[in-house]
Predict the structure.
Amino acid sequence: MADRVKAAILGSGNIGTDLMVKLLRSKIIEVTIMAGIDPKSEGLRRAREAGLKTTVDSVDGLLAMADDFDIVFDATSAAAHVAAAPRFKEAGKIAIDLTPAAVGPYIIPGVNSLDLMNEPNVNLVSCGGQATIPIVAAINRVAPVEYAEIVATISSLSAGPGTRQNIDEFTQTTAHGIESVGGAKKGKAIIILNPADPPIMMRDSVFAQAPGADPEKVNRSILDTVESIQEYVPGYRLRTDPIFEDDGTIRVFIEVEGAGDFLPKYAGNLDIMTWAAVRVGEELAQGLIERRSAQAAEAK
């Protein structure tokens, strides 16, 4: 289809592979390339079977095929993205960062994504951020949030090497996102790796202090936000109704079940990142299509 935008995936691990499966179903994005470093990786094998071009030369190999993509999804690590980001910018490619590198502005679908359509590099914050920042923003829309704390509990088995290496970046980036995107005056993030067997699903808790909040208005705002997230993350749900305390504390408990595309269903922490990447990618791709159409019309 001529109106689809071509995209590449950097990183052939679990996240990159799951993202590929989802992008192959997109009607707006045509995924064309997967780049990695391990020639024996499952992701590169599946990419070849799906008809994608592949390379084991990471960023170098990807940029050697620069004519074959407009958007690159980076599913590597924070340190790797920091090094790669300037090269993507120089090549004129839009980068969607699934790591906690935070080179570009934080982006959360349905919260601020439509404000960042022209950005060359956007950051998806973290799995905990994608699950909880929309809830903080939903509360803040109707009552100023003085403080918000999120606790992301995930299965140890769904925390790969990249997640474990980026624990510090996770807490710092997520806390900043709670403030800069969620709107809280002060934010804090905690991540817990639970070794339970069988593995638990991703569970997130949001504790927000919003003195004077109207419970009915806050509840409605939270439920509307949950419905909007479920449009692109089918396994996202509230575990209980929001809890309101007399001191202005609001407690929200969330569970995220994965779709099982490539990752196991308990790995909702990884799944919400790939779903968010698809949604953001499609929004940016649609914006790119519209800009190209406008430029073509002006040239006539």
The longest strand covers residues 147-155. Residues 161 and 267 are 14 Å apart (CA to CA).
